[in-house]
Amino acid sequence: MNAVDTNILAYCIDSESPAKATRAGAFVPSLQPGSTLLLWQVVVELGAVITRWHRLGKASDEAYGWIEDLLAEFPLAVPTASVATDGLGLYRAHKLQYFDALIIASCRHAGATTLYSEDLPGIAGAEVEGVRIVNPFS
């Protein structure tokens, strides 16, 4: 199973980074619904990005539909309390940022063995507790 970090999905609608938007726009449609899931944390973070961009005039009203489209295509993995404690353990053991540790913990609990992210440069290409971190743009 695969999961995708917020940054990859946000790039798809980022009008200020056309090169990244093009790369993400080619990558995301290649993801298969049967082998890719959405993490709750990613949906929450993407919602925060879209609402901030909308408020600043950087995103149109149609951007809100991006979350609905993703939820219609990919299953949503909702965390349990154990994701928070596992995230703390990953934070301590691997010296990760806490939100990065939470995303990896969410992957582990949802059965995702690959996390696509461009936002984890220190561990891109590595495997953390059974989750392989892949930068789809490199």
Q: Please, could you describe this protein's structure?
A:
With 138 residues, the protein is of the alpha/beta class. It has one domain (2-134): 5'-nuclease (Rossmann fold, 3-Layer(aba) Sandwich). 51% of the residues lie in helices and 13% in strands. The chain contains 6 helices and 6 strands, in the order E-H-H-E-H-H-E-H-H-E-E-E. The protein has a 6-stranded mixed beta sheet. A hairpin with a 2-residue loop joins strand 5 and strand 6 (131-134). The chain is globular, with a radius of gyration of 15 Å. The mean pLDDT is 91.
Helices and strands, in N-to-C order?
A: EHHEHHEHHEEE
Helical segment count: 6
How far is the N terminus from the C terminus? 20 Å
Percentage of β-strand residues: 5-15%
Q: Mean of residue pLDDT?
A: 91
Q: What share of residues is helical?
A: 40-55%
Kindly summarize this structure in a few lines.
With 138 residues, this protein is of the alpha/beta class. It has helices spanning 6-11, 18-27, 40-55, 63-73, 81-94, 98-110, and strands at 2-4, 36-39, 76-77, 114-116, 127-128, 131-134. It has a six-stranded mixed sheet with strand order 3-2-1-4-6-5.
